[in-house]
Amino acid sequence: MLGKIMLNYTKNIRAAAAQISPVLFSQQGTMEKVLDAIANAAKKGVELIVFPETFVPYYPYFSFVEPPVLMGKSHLKLYQEAVTVPGKVTQAIAQAAKTHGMVVVLGVNEREEGSLYNTQLIFDADGALVLKRRKITPTYHERMVWGQGDGAGLRTVDTTVGRLGALACWEHYNPLARYALMAQHEQIHCGQFPGSMVGQIFADQMEVTMRHHALESGCFVINATGWLTAEQKLQITTDEKMHQALSGGCYTAIISPEGKHLCEPIAEGEGLAIADLDFSLIAKRKRMMDSVGHYARPDLLQLTLNNQPWSALEANPVTPNAIPAVSDPELTETIEALPNNPIFSH
């Protein structure tokens, strides 16, 4: 549970959203691009950087353009290059975060034994991994690739730069997931999308969604999308008719609590969207409309969150011949009247 502390609404920090291409089929190659981007951002005074969805080793674009019967080889390759947590990727990113005093939000394909997950990692400026969360419901074609996350990841974390929340892609179309973070008073929301998919309509929808969340939550939104070159599209599929499905859909942006762009969004190519965040704008917005405070009606509408981690094994010990606790006096008397019945023996 989050402590009852007064958050800082007077600070100013510099943030960046990275629009960047992966090194397809290479965990090591993509990780090196992440480390280079962190170092480059540090030279510009950046204190928080957000990378795209499942960026390391790469988003499973193949699952969008290949039928399930043909994607086995591509899927197994992703298993081979996926990230274990903890592991060499998390160690390298943690060290970079610590070296540059930067908070890093990174999307990875996480492997846990026989399953892959769409995972978001947040490293604090001292290198500590303060959040590992999994996308609660993979979208459409993604369900052939990743398992489901749980409610344990629907939480905000306090970092050097402020209180952060994170969701991936179409989780932003789940209003209850967004509200779970809003109710925990996120100051900066980190959004991650794959980019280079579906066309301009995807970018247009993304902009509407992310700017609306900034307004509704009264927080800053930093959104990062990936980028594919023409050569990379050929690497994913030689069927050029499918390349249209691997184009557009890029919207890397930083948005104020008033729903305004704080820098020019990036729609094509690689680059960093960088802006300074003035936290007094959070209070300015929430003075008018605080969705989880003075504008809320918890007597009418409340959200119930199951924040317990999911597990396939519930290892609770079972005591033989145990009796359930009872509070009904008559039932207690009945049980005590049967001392020779082994079912009720103590």
From TrEMBL:
<protein>
    <submittedName>
        <fullName>Nitrilase</fullName>
    </submittedName>
</protein>
<feature type="domain" description="CN hydrolase">
    <location>
        <begin position="13"/>
        <end position="279"/>
    </location>
</feature>
<dbReference type="InterPro" id="IPR000132">
    <property type="entry name" value="Nitrilase/CN_hydratase_CS"/>
</dbReference>
<dbReference type="InterPro" id="IPR044149">
    <property type="entry name" value="Nitrilases_CHs"/>
</dbReference>
<dbReference type="Pfam" id="PF00795">
    <property type="entry name" value="CN_hydrolase"/>
</dbReference>
<dbReference type="InterPro" id="IPR003010">
    <property type="entry name" value="C-N_Hydrolase"/>
</dbReference>
<dbReference type="InterPro" id="IPR023919">
    <property type="entry name" value="Nitrilase"/>
</dbReference>
<dbReference type="InterPro" id="IPR036526">
    <property type="entry name" value="C-N_Hydrolase_sf"/>
</dbReference>
<dbReference type="GO" id="GO:0000257">
    <property type="term" value="F:nitrilase activity"/>
</dbReference>
<comment type="similarity">
    <text>Belongs to the carbon-nitrogen hydrolase superfamily. Nitrilase family.</text>
</comment>
